[in-house]
Design goal:
single chain, 943 residues, mainly alpha, two-stranded antiparallel sheet, 40 helices, 13 strands
Length: 943
């Protein structure tokens, strides 16, 4: 590309690196993507027609001219300035539909790419190719090749659990209406691709697609009002009807059957391997809108979603199981469940009667849990005085009677259909649907606990105590059943709110079961007292009971280690808290398991990409060793975001890249923002992504995947050195360069992100301008929009260059790690993917928004130099200039679609320039917001 990039400390003076020069697409690759290009041409052509018809020829011609020019920029046929000049002084009323056109194209191209991946997988399956990595079929083959014995499999997977946790990090920029319209287009495109259509039928389907695209064009892409936490709760629940109810029970059933068939003596239990979790409505770290009422709403709506699903399935089953006692042998247990004798006329359809009995009891249960408004008139009609279910286990027992009766009648195929799915759904979702985690910052806990201790006369100045004194006072309180406060205590607004939240959680546990609120996460946890303070709050709500030195707590206390220093000290904190006798006893009562959460976002913002990734790996090694020494089981909870800068990247590779012993059959992992929709919006992609999580967990638990052997100790020492160098390089820019915060805030759309209405939380935890107080999402989103992608690579090139020097043996060492060590290969691959999405030519245009020319040239010069250095070192280590040699799907996307991002980036810069010059009008604001939405859609991640 012909934009220029300044050397450090100088104006623009040298050609930029063209990322396309580092992406190799050959003729074979083009041939494989011809069906994809056909789909894109179809969808793009329809969109173009709609734009011309409804926004006029002027807008359409400008869109077409910009599109052609963008591809000419990619081919280095014209200077980017020629394209940018199209938008200088463009009337905003014209710019907005142009932005919308490119945004809609990005959305439709995403859809076409997803369908193409399905098409390619189907071709592989039909050809009889070996199953692809990340599928359960491939995992089963690897387990078979490893020659594992039943006992080992049974021991490792005894408590297997894979828990995707839908979080309250709202980077999903699409409205639900857009989401649903896109799904309808997807189904039509699938039908068109899989069905032999006559010309008339093809025209009919194409017209149906056109209607949906027309609807999409006339639907607002962005919200007029900011999402509320209540909106976020409901948004998260939509994925259950969309995919989870279909897919999760099916996977749980199939994986259990497959493992039992291969390892019959393993003793694998009926417990589902995949369960669901949520933070939405329970995560109040920095979100002032979460309170007790919100916790009640979140847990109640979740339970209503689960119970409503079970009721609906029972009604459908009653319609389907119409077997007559005149034609089948009737099971006595079934008749007992139905409440009739065999000789009664009403016993002719025993399955329907039994299912009516079950449904009646579940309706009574729902009436106990919820208002009558939840039930339909038909439900209320069925209430006949039957007792409600005490828990989901009782419902499952009744369903097991139906199952046994069907199988006794040799109706196994019927039992294995809807009834099997419902039984698995009850096991998986119970009456609670998903576990709602609570989360709060340790500083808040300290403030509230200090107030409670002072109110109770226990300690007037808790904040002034050292760690040992704090632990002593907290331990005394946690061994005594006496609460610190009364319900009518006059406390501060903060303390009242925090106690209201844990009391709401206690009510949810009492109503929906302990699975409703299973974990309490402590953000920025640095000490034993931080963990005990959370227990004080749980005790006040009755969730923790000292129980005469045999403590019981239905909620796990989960420390979250976020900064690099906290990660480095995590094992020490774990060992120290387990030395507290009552805490150790509590862990033993929770199946001897301690969960630890690892923060990917703040560690990256703190120390940069390489330092954070290595700190996480080292922390896991240390925690695994500490847990082994203490004789407890460890479960790690990975707080990954959507982007590589926040721990994102392919889940399969990320799990296999964990150190030995870190998975042990069980893990929890956050699913955030636009990644949730990308993975779980509909059943086909949801199944593939959930299978991926489960396959990687099983492989990482049962197979030796690290690959370092005797070289591990020396590799760890080398990575310690490289990570330290990377952190130093990162810190020189982010923490030590005067004016860096000013550069960041003015060269990116950071200040405008708050107006995007994509979530309920403020952009910063505190009202400061410190990078440390800024939330990770706007930090990453800002760099992503400006195409710098800094959190996903900065500092790594300098570290590699400095460590390797002129020593070819050192370079060979890194090449060897890349070949044999999944951790190192994954770090390099993820970084290459980020570099492929970056564009220093576009980033330089954002830099022109910085008023201070000297600051602009200095900081951007540092960024551009490091970018070039990182690409060069990446090529030396991987042995190829092709950044995406190991990711064909992303290569296709970057090469074919990224020219369409050019107009969005250039229009965003132009509108930011006008806005900051004083043109603060609603339409300019909307234009900026639309460019953010379009870029987030096109890049397939925002924060």
């Amino acid at each position: 590309m012909s934009d220029t990039v300044p050397a450090q400390g100088t104006p623009a003076s040298r050609p930029s690196i063209s990322i396309v020069d580092h992406i190799v697409v050959d003729d074979a690759g083009r041939a494989l993507t011809e069906p994809l290009r056909e789909d894109i041409r179809l969808l793009g052509g329809i969109l173009g027609d709609v734009v011309r018809e409804h926004s006029g020829t002027e807008v359409f011609d400008l869109v077409e001219s910009a599109r052609v020019a963008a591809f000419r920029v990619r081919r280095n046929e014209i200077d980017r300035t020629e394209l940018a000049d199209m938008f200088v002084d463009l009337d905003v009323s014209t710019a907005v539909p142009v932005i919308r056109a490119f945004s809609h194209f990005a959305l439709l191209a995403n859809l076409a790419e997803d369908i193409h991946r399905e098409r390619r997988r189907a071709i592989h399956v039909r050809a009889g190719d070996p199953p692809q990595d990340s599928s359960l079929a491939a995992t089963y083959a690897k387990l078979s090749d490893a020659g594992l014995v039943d006992e080992e499999v049974g021991r490792t997977l005894a408590d297997a659990a894979v828990v995707p946790v839908i979080t309250a990090h709202p980077t999903e920029t699409r409205r639900r209406t857009v989401f649903e319209t896109q799904n309808r287009i997807t189904e039509l495109m699938r039908f068109r691709g899989r069905t032999e259509l006559t010309p008339d039928e093809d025209a009919e389907v194409t017209e149906a697609i056109r209607r949906q695209i027309l609807t999409l064009w006339q639907t607002a892409l962005i919200r007029l009002e900011r999402l509320t936490i209540q909106d976020e709760i409901r948004s998260g629940l939509r994925y259950y009807e969309a995919s989870f109810f279909d897919v999760v029970p099916a996977i749980n059933t199939s994986v259990r059957a497959a493992l039992r068939s291969t390892y019959p003596a393993a003793g694998l239990a009926d417990e589902p391997m995949i369960r669901m979790g949520s933070w939405i409505g329970g995560d109040r770290d920095g979100n002032p809108f979460v309170n007790g009422e919100v916790v009640t709403l979140a847990t109640t709506l979740a339970a209503q979603t689960a119970v409503g699903h079970h009721l609906s399935e029972l009604e459908t089953l009653a319609q389907e199981l119409s077997m007559s006692a005149r034609l089948i042998d009737t099971d006595e247990t079934l008749l007992e469940l139905a409440g009739v004798a065999a000789d009664e006329p009403s016993a002719d359809e025993p399955f329907r009667l039994a299912l009516r009995h079950i449904r009646s009891r579940l309706i009574a249960t729902a009436r106990d849990m919820f208002d009558d408004d939840f039930l339909t008139a038909g439900d209320l009609f069925l209430i006949d005085g039957k007792p409600s279910y005490a828990d989901a286990g009782e419902l499952l027992t009744d369903l097991d009677v139906i199952d046994a009766a069907l199988r006794a009648n040799k109706d196994d195929s019927i039992a294995d259909d809807r009834l099997s799915s419902l039984r698995e759904a009850v096991r998986t979702f119970g009456f609670h649907l998903s576990g709602l985690d609570m989360r709060q910052n340790s500083d808040t806990h300290e403030e509230v606990v200090a107030e409670l201790l002072a109110w109770a006369g226990v300690c007037p100045d808790y904040a002034s105590l050292d760690e040992a004194a704090r632990v002593a006072i907290l331990s005394d309180e946690l061994r005594a059943r006496r609460p610190l406060t009364r319900p009518d205590a006059a406390l501060s607004e903060l303390a009242t709110k925090e106690l209201g939240i844990v009391r709401a959680a206690a009510r949810a546990v009492a109503t929906f079961g302990p699975e409703a609120v299973p974990n309490y996460i402590i953000s920025m946890c640095t000490s034993v007292s931080d963990m005990l303070e959370a227990l004080i709050l749980l005790k006040e709500a009755g969730l923790y009971d000292p129980n005469d030195d045999d403590p019981r707590c239905s909620v796990r206390v989960v420390p979250l280690f976020e900064t690099i220093e906290d990660l480095q000290q995590g094992a020490e904190t774990l060992l120290a808290v387990l030395e507290v006798p009552f805490y150790r006893a509590m862990v033993e009562s929770q199946n001897g398991m301690q969960e630890i959460m690892l923060g990917y976002s703040d560690s990256n913002k703190d120390g940069g990409y390489m330092a954070a990734n290595w700190a996480l790996y080292r922390a896991e090694l240390d925690l695994v060793e500490a847990a082994s020494r203490s004789g407890i089981r460890l479960r790690l909870f990975h707080g990954r975001g959507g982007t590589v800068g926040r721990g994102g990247g392919p889940s399969y590779d990320a799990i296999l890249a964990q150190p030995p012993g870190a998975v042990q059959g069980s893990l929890r992992i956050t699913e955030q923002g636009e990644i949730i929709a990308a993975k779980y919006a509909e059943p086909v992609t949801a199944r593939r992504n959930l299978e991926t999580l489960l396959a990687a967990t099983i492989e990482s638990s049962l197979l030796d995947v690290e690959g370092l052997g005797d070289e591990s100790d020396s590799a760890y020492e080398i990575m310690d050195d490289i990570a330290a160098k990377a952190r130093a390089a990162y810190s020189r820019l982010v923490h030590e360069t005067p004016g860096f915060v000013e550069y960041f805030t003015t060269s990116t759309p950071l200040s405008e992100i708050g107006a995007l209405n994509i979530g309920s939380r403020p952009a910063s935890r505190k009202q400061t301008e410190k990078i440390s107080d800024l939330r990770a999402i706007p930090w990453v989103l800002s760099w992503t929009q400006s195409r710098v992608m800094l959190p996903g690579w900065y500092g790594t090139g300098s570290a590699f260059e400095e460590w390797v020097g002129d020593d070819p043996e050192r370079l060979e060492t890194l090449r060897r790690y890349y070949e044999k060590w999944p951790f190192f290969r994954t770090v390099m691959s993820n970084m290459a993917q980020v570099l492929a999405k970056s564009d220093m030519g576009l980033a330089h245009r954002y830099a022109q928004l910085v008023p201070d020319e000297e600051l602009r040239d200095k900081v951007f010069g540092m960024i551009a130099d490091e970018h070039e250095r990182t690409i060069a070192m990446c090529a030396q280590i991987t042995g190829t200039d092709d950044l995406l040699h190991d990711n064909a799907a992303l290569k296709r996307s970057v090469y074919n679609r990224f020219p369409y991002l050019e107009p969005l980036n250039l229009l965003q810069v132009e509108l930011l320039r006008r806005f900051r010059a004083g043109e603060d009008t609603p339409i300019v604001r909307r234009g900026i917001q639309l460019t953010m939405n379009g870029l987030a859609t096109a890049l397939r991640n925002s924060g």
